[in-house]
Amino acid sequence: MALEMESMASAIGVSVPVLRFLLCFVATIPVSFTHRFVQSPFGKHLYAALSGAFLSYLSFGFSSNLLFLVPMLLGYLSMVLFRPYCGFLTFLLGFGYLIGWLNVTQEKTFEFGNYFVCEEKKGFNVQVEIRIYFLLEKKFYRENAEFDLQCAPVCCVCGICHVYYMSGDAWKEGGIDATGALMVLTLKVISCAMSYNDGLLKEEELREAQKKNRLIELPSFIEYVGFCLCCGSHFAGPVFEMKDYLEWTERKGIWAPTEKGPAPSPFGATIQALLQATVCMALYLYLIPHFNISGLNGPAYQEWGFWKRLSYQYMSGFTARWKYYFIWSISEAAVIISGLGFSGWTDTSPSKPKWDRAKNVDVLGVEFAKSSVQLPLVWNIQVSTWLRHYVYDRLVQKGKKPGFFQLLATQTTSAVWHLSCTALLLYTVVANRKDNLIFSYYSIFNFASHCKLKRTVKTPKGLYPGYIIFFVQSALMIAGSRVLYRWQQAIPSNMNVVKNLLVFISFAYTVLVLNYSAVGFMVLTLQETLALYGSVYYIGTIAPIVLILLGNMIKPAKPSRSKARKEQ
């Protein structure tokens, strides 16, 4: 079996861990389909919990379920014990656990297992001694562990109850870990707690989304676990609400039988999602040999002129997006075929079923977006919706309009979420072999080396500034787009040429800044990100800043139609 996995992985050009993950990920489709045949609500919750845990075990190992159990328990206990504050507590604890930002108060048993899945190198047997230092009450505590490892390099991150390595480096080395799934799970746990918290508030104090999603009663623990792991949605999303999950399971709300008949068939929408996934993967496999990270760092790139560099950055960002389109299309198919993806009926005659509850991306909407403001509505849609409902809207004071602060805070939250693989505690890893290699890792508070390297070793630094830079860039990009939109709206209707010119400029601006910003998301490190931005003279940073400054100086009059409405 192992040989078959190796040969299959080699044939498609991925590592065995990544292949195993992809197989389990695709398996969420038949697993979700089988969910339709479970009759009782309790059985559905139990099936969702067990099938999700089993897929996690196959993908990441047994320890992954223990990793997931901690934030789930933190969220549920917050709801049980501290309902008036459960939303705030779960938000802090969930993100704190996600980035390993909690103190260690007792000796821990570290399970290495499948978290140490790196690019395998035959015949490389390393005896590794781990010395992990915890910063606790201004003292360092040390724990030692020894184990055999058949892979290299060693990638590990100090978490709360486990040591697991960073997702960014895992993917770079051909590995896979459970951090991405933990990221999605964290959002689901937080949304459940905050919706339960909203159940205490008066209806007139709530926004429409809060009214729709709030929970009056505490879900049972089996309902809660089923919600967290249902349809394998914790692998890559989509994020959905506990209220919707409960109504779907109990055949209430839009899933209740109506005069229109039983719930519509999901097979047509599922096939459409699978076809989209196939096209996306085919295009990605065709483009990736020509436009990739290696090309951005290659010597040929340095010899090119400005326009060719900018074009290559554009194509690299364009190419990278298709793997996300593929993953989200598969997860969409899994949720649709379970029935949970159903979101109601159209207003047309005859009415048709809508299946956009699981929709995470509008491919054409992203690639042909006329404005950066539209991107959150068509890219990673469910996470964008989560950020709007649980961060952006809740930062806006009643009676006031949102501004740049709310936008920047939301983008910063998104950046922190993507930095889940960051280690906030200091630790060092020492690998003992003939040449006595030393791998040094640092917390974000201490980048000074604690040991001398006898040989240069490329190691992860624990913090990926590329993520932060990307999301700050996104905030600037959207703010710049809003300036262009205001100018466009101020153009009189009889000046169509000028208005269309501004539409084109907005489209070109979006394409330019989006793909420029995506470079940071791909290369991750500060040095590489700044070097690549500098190679095109920081054009994608300067352009939005100039627009924002011009927007403050050139403030167009409001459209005449707005004045007419006020007079009415």
From TrEMBL:
State where it is primarily located: membrane
Q: Which PANTHER family match?
A: LYSOPHOSPHOLIPID ACYLTRANSFERASE 6, PORCUPINE
What cellular-component terms does GO give this entry?
endoplasmic reticulum; membrane
The superkingdom listed in its UniProt entry is Eukaryota
Q: Which GO terms describe its biological process?
A: lipid modification; phospholipid biosynthetic process; triglyceride biosynthetic process
Q: What is the lineage of its organism?
A: Eukaryota, Viridiplantae, Streptophyta, Embryophyta, Tracheophyta
**Which keywords does this chain's UniProt record carry?**
Acyltransferase, Membrane, Transferase, Transmembrane, Transmembrane helix
Q: Which residues cross the membrane?
A: 12-34, 46-70, 82-102, 221-240, 267-287, 324-345, 464-485, 497-524, 536-554
Please give the organism.
Populus alba x Populus x berolinensis
From the Swiss-Prot or TrEMBL record, give the protein name.
Lysophospholipid acyltransferase 1-like
> GO: which molecular function terms?
acyltransferase activity
Query: Which InterPro entries does the UniProt record give?
Result: LPLAT_7/PORCN-like (IPR049941), MBOAT_fam (IPR004299)
The way this protein sits in the membrane is described as: Multi-pass membrane protein
